[in-house]
Design goal:
The chain is built from twelve helices and no strands. By secondary structure, it is an all-alpha fold.
Length: 199
């Protein structure tokens, strides 16, 4: 995979999909064959989607975000309460998308240090322009793709509890749940804790 794709991760795939991610984590723990995977998504419709295509698309996005993480992580996610699950999925998404983790560690952290109440689309645009210098491929992406990436980034942050809403983009303070924190420390992911706490 090219460097810029690794840096971006699967951000374009959609929001955190917390409940669905918990179900997929449970499914991944059974180490399903392709047939069992398709059966769970299509015939059993475990994600409760209207069409097999959207079930497969959502599941593929979630799998990209959590598929390479340990069974311990998957088990914690599958059995977590909503708040813990949201934080675990936020962590998984930041691990998958270093771009978003950098945005949290720089732009969001700076906004909090300056006692700003909210961030806005301009913050993302400046950040993106900066990254285009590092990864010229970003500048070659279509306007609709870059717009979608920005929208998903704000949606993910809202789902994770870091913004009040995608509209207001008011910043909230997050305190990482003790179990989530100790799991991330065990995984050597202090940089992800730093991105999530943004202090």
């Amino acid at each position: 995979m090219t460097e810029y794709k690794k840096y971006l991760g699967d951000l374009i795939g959609g929001s955190l999909m917390i409940k669905e991610s918990q179900l997929i984590a449970g499914l991944l723990l059974t180490q399903p064959s392709k047939e069992q995977w398709d059966d769970a998504l299509v015939n059993q419709n475990i994600l409760q989607k209207r069409s097999p295509a959207s079930a497969k698309r959502n599941a593929a996005t979630i799998k990209k975000r959590i598929g390479s993480l340990s069974n311990e992580f998957l088990s914690a996610l599958a059995n977590a309460n909503h708040e813990e699950a949201a934080q675990l999925m936020m962590a998984a998404t930041l691990i998958n998308s270093p771009l978003l983790a950098d945005f949290m560690r720089t732009v969001v952290m700076d906004a909090k240090r300056m006692y700003r109440e909210s961030i806005d689309s301009k913050d993302w645009e400046y950040f993106w322009e900066d990254k285009c210098r590092l990864y010229p491929e970003f500048a070659e992406m279509s306007e609709s793709s870059t717009y979608k990436i920005a929208q998903v980034a704000f949606k993910v942050m809202t789902d994770g509890g870091f913004l009040e809403s995608t509209k207001s983009k008011i910043l909230t303070n997050i305190y990482i749940e003790p179990d989530v924190r100790s799991l991330l420390i065990e995984m050597d992911k202090e940089d992800i804790i730093q991105a999530m706490e943004a202090y």
